[in-house]
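=== RUN LOG ===
request id: a7f3
mode: sequence -> structure
chains: 1
length: 69
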Amino acid sequence: MKRRSLKLAALVVALAAAWAAYASAAPWYRWQHRINHTILCSQNSPGDIWDKFQGPYSDSRCRKEGVPQ
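=== RESULT ===
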Protein backbone atom coordinates (compact mmCIF):
# COMPACT_ATOMS: atom_id res chain seq x y z
CA MET A 1 0.00 0.00 0.00
CA LYS A 2 2.82 2.46 0.79
CA ARG A 3 4.31 1.90 -2.64
CA ARG A 4 1.02 2.79 -4.33
CA SER A 5 0.68 5.98 -2.24
CA LEU A 6 4.24 6.98 -3.11
CA LYS A 7 3.58 6.50 -6.83
CA LEU A 8 0.36 8.52 -6.60
CA ALA A 9 2.15 11.35 -4.75
CA ALA A 10 4.93 11.37 -7.37
CA LEU A 11 2.31 11.55 -10.15
CA VAL A 12 0.54 14.48 -8.47
CA VAL A 13 3.82 16.39 -8.05
CA ALA A 14 4.80 15.73 -11.69
CA LEU A 15 1.41 16.93 -12.97
CA ALA A 16 1.56 20.07 -10.81
CA ALA A 17 5.05 20.89 -12.12
CA ALA A 18 3.94 20.38 -15.71
CA TRP A 19 0.90 22.60 -15.21
CA ALA A 20 3.01 25.36 -13.63
CA ALA A 21 5.51 25.24 -16.50
CA TYR A 22 2.67 25.55 -19.04
CA ALA A 23 1.18 28.67 -17.40
CA SER A 24 2.13 31.98 -18.97
CA ALA A 25 2.61 35.39 -17.36
CA ALA A 26 -0.32 37.74 -17.05
CA PRO A 27 -0.22 40.99 -19.03
CA TRP A 28 0.33 44.35 -17.30
CA TYR A 29 -1.95 47.36 -17.70
CA ARG A 30 -1.83 51.06 -16.85
CA TRP A 31 -4.61 52.00 -14.45
CA GLN A 32 -5.86 55.55 -13.84
CA HIS A 33 -7.46 56.78 -10.61
CA ARG A 34 -10.84 58.37 -11.26
CA ILE A 35 -10.41 61.23 -8.78
CA ASN A 36 -6.79 62.38 -8.83
CA HIS A 37 -5.83 60.81 -12.21
CA THR A 38 -2.77 59.01 -10.79
CA ILE A 39 -1.49 56.31 -13.17
CA LEU A 40 0.06 53.04 -12.05
CA CYS A 41 1.12 49.79 -13.69
CA SER A 42 -0.40 46.55 -12.39
CA GLN A 43 -1.52 43.12 -13.56
CA ASN A 44 -4.74 43.32 -11.53
CA SER A 45 -7.18 46.10 -10.84
CA PRO A 46 -6.09 48.04 -7.75
CA GLY A 47 -9.74 48.69 -6.82
CA ASP A 48 -13.16 49.90 -7.90
CA ILE A 49 -12.08 53.53 -8.29
CA TRP A 50 -9.41 52.66 -10.91
CA ASP A 51 -10.06 52.39 -14.67
CA LYS A 52 -7.96 50.46 -17.16
CA PHE A 53 -6.12 53.21 -19.03
CA GLN A 54 -3.70 51.52 -21.48
CA GLY A 55 -2.30 48.09 -22.24
CA PRO A 56 -1.54 45.26 -22.40
CA TYR A 57 2.20 45.43 -21.70
CA SER A 58 4.70 42.62 -21.25
CA ASP A 59 6.81 44.23 -18.51
CA SER A 60 6.18 45.59 -15.01
CA ARG A 61 7.07 49.16 -16.01
CA CYS A 62 4.39 49.20 -18.73
CA ARG A 63 6.88 50.09 -21.46
CA LYS A 64 6.97 47.04 -23.77
CA GLU A 65 3.65 46.76 -25.57
CA GLY A 66 2.14 43.36 -26.21
CA VAL A 67 1.15 40.23 -24.34
CA PRO A 68 3.97 38.40 -22.47
CA GLN A 69 5.17 35.20 -24.06
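=== NOTES ===
The beta strands are 28-33, 39-42, 50-57.
The chain has a mean pLDDT of 86.
=== END ===
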